[in-house]
Predict the 3D structure of the following.
Amino acid sequence: MDETDLLERSPFLVKLKARRLAPSRLADLYAAAGAKTPPPAPDPWECCGSSCKPCVKELWREELKCWNEIHPDGAEEEEEEEDEDRGEGKDEETVRRKKEAAEKIKLAKLKERQEKSSPKVEIAVEEKLQGLRLGSVLQAAKKKLVKEDLW
């Protein structure tokens, strides 16, 4: 697929191109969007956690969104396998079962990718606990100020 095909099929890619990104970044986006498989999620060690702009996770999400717009049905590998099955003269029930199994595998892989890319529950719980600790410290300070008649 060339750049014009990719731009026609991905409105998000058009939006990114309008932001006048560096040519190397555009090349990365075109490569990710035109690939047969989705871009791999960055490894945990690739993000430093210091809110860089742009973060490697943000760059990956952009590439994944472009890829999903270009490939709304997922990876193209399984379609080739189905075509081979039909050519061997298999009955319709076998082809249907294989298609369902391939769909289940595709959904499992997608779910696994989403779990890897989504924030973990432990992080959310820790942030909530930190908020509660801060809230209790503020409440204690308020009580002290009220007691001393400064509030």
